[in-house]
Amino acid sequence: MIASATQHALSSDHVRDQLVARTVDCNGKRYHADGQYVLYWMQTTHRLDDNWALRAAIRTADRINRPLIIHQGLDPTYPYASARHHTFILQGARDTARDAIARGLFYQFVLRRARDDDRRVLDRLASRAYLVFTDLFPTAGVHERTMRFAQRASCRVLAIDSVCTVPSGTFERAEYAARTIRPKIAALLANAIEPVDDVPPQCGVSDAVRAMVHELTQSAVLPIATMTNDDITREVSRCAIDHDVRAVPDVAGGSVAAQSQLARFLQHTLSEYATRRNEASDPFGTSNLSAYLHYGQISSAQIVRDVLAARVSTDSETAFVNQVTTWRELSFNWCLRTPHFDTIEALPAWIQRTMAEHVNDPREWHYDRDTLERGDTHDVLWNAAQRQLVSSGLVHNYPRMLWGKTVLLWTSTYHEALSNLLYLNDKYALDGRDANSVGGIMWCLGLWDRPWGNKPIWGGIRPMVTSRAKMKFDVAAYIAQN
Ligand SMILES: Cc1cc2nc3c(=O)[nH]c(=O)nc-3n(C[C@H](O)[C@H](O)[C@H](O)COP(=O)(O)OP(=O)(O)OC[C@H]3O[C@@H](n4cnc5c(N)ncnc54)[C@H](O)[C@@H]3O)c2cc1C
Fold first, then answer.
1. Which DSSP letter does residue 65 get?
2. Which long-range contacts link 227-233 to residues 24+ away (Cβ below 8 Å)?
3. Could you report the per-residue pLDDT of 220-263, keeping only the tens digit for each?
4. How far apart are the CA of 353 and the centre of ligand 1, in A?
5. Residue of minimum CA distance from atom 26 in ligand 1
6. pTM as predicted
7. What atom of ligand 1 comes closest to residue 288's alpha carbon?
8. Does any ligand 1 atom lie closer than 6 A to the CB of residue 294?
9. What distance in angstroms lies between residue 278's CA and the mean position of ligand 1's atoms?
10. Ligand 1 midpoint to CA 343 (Å)
11. Does residue 386 sit in the same domain as residue 324?
12. What is the pLDDT at residue 8?
């Protein structure tokens, strides 16, 4: 009894400290003293487990003894809105809705099918809230949307970081390279992954509050918890989005699928990750968790906890934790701390100098965006990676590096290369529009790297060419698969 009370006190200090490092005040406005509830606007953390915004919202709701409303919405207007992303998100929302019912939480999902549909559901909900919590996320237009909303809202809006394992607020500036952020993350990791016992809010949602929320949302709420996959497909088909980028039937969205994927990885792959991770023809050589991480359908802290608890080969454990913490959080650190993070102008001075020196170097090949998108270049390996991206929404990391680097050789300017890479990645990849998308592509342009000699077109940027890929993986098998 005493032990568990002490444990609880420790745990609650831990939660408070983590929340301080994870919270960004978006508008400095007052709390609505007469607000009827606390509102959590779920934007990018599509789960109820290990969700810091939800934890913060429950703590506030308990402190002021008011209920908690969780609201998630989906618009047709986000960048690259497509059947692929919509299906994955709706499948995720179904899991969240079912989980909310099991936990006794009030969660609602609102789908705006067309631009002209009611845009003000969130504003109306916020007008009756004491305070609004939302997710901190630097890319996919989420930050801009949050700040526009925070300006309109009359109560305080707080954005909470649930995306990084070690709170992003720990780092005050953009880190220079993986080697500079790695030891800092390692020093804080054990504390950051400490499990937290989540408790439901003390104050239930009364019938009066339910009726009020119902009136504020009008009839836009989708009965997502009971929808079948066919219902979801039908719903998606009615939305004004890009239907040419189709859903990927083999990749189910949602926290349930994410947990099964993690379990499969822990059981069958983790122990060999260090040796299998670069074999692009092996579909199970890596975790395939990036889309779930992107949509917040699984937490990176849980992944790291479970990987460390598995106690497999040290090399594999170290290699995997390095990818999911160091490299992933370096990308978030970059996007959170760098103005105009996805532009050439944001790159370090040595890269801009080398680009200025080599921008007029003759290019043997030039491919426009359409040709790249069709995967119709002279390079069969590049085309295979592009086909994998278009058909499955995921690309193995090794060919993805080659895919990104090679485009530098085929475009007139580095600006054109960057713009084409962001377009192709974000349009088709289920893990696209992420800080990792920006990080991966900017790395191809030299970010976090050092100068590597001085070659035509590459200048000092580290070269990587598809012709040498045979030394790394079974290129023929990869091309045959894609
Ligand atoms: C040009 C280019 C574009 C990229 N675009 C994206 C993107 O849009 N979204 C995305 O999540 N990743 C992107 N990456 C990084 C990497 O390719 C993917 O994270 C990885 O292939 C996902 O597969 P996995 O989940 O099986 O990875 P695993 O090897 O199982 O790794 C586990 C997790 O660690 C993180 N991770 C792994 N490799 C990297 C890396 N190199 N950089 C940062 N984090 C990493 C990811 O979150 C990944 O899910 C890109 C890399 C490049 C070179």
1. T
2. 227/90, 227/94, 229/91, 232/87, 232/90, 232/91, 232/94, 233/87
3. 899 999 999 999 999 999 999 999 999 999 999 999 999 999 99
4. 28
5. 288
6. 0.97
7. 26
8. yes
9. 12
10. 20
11. no
12. 42
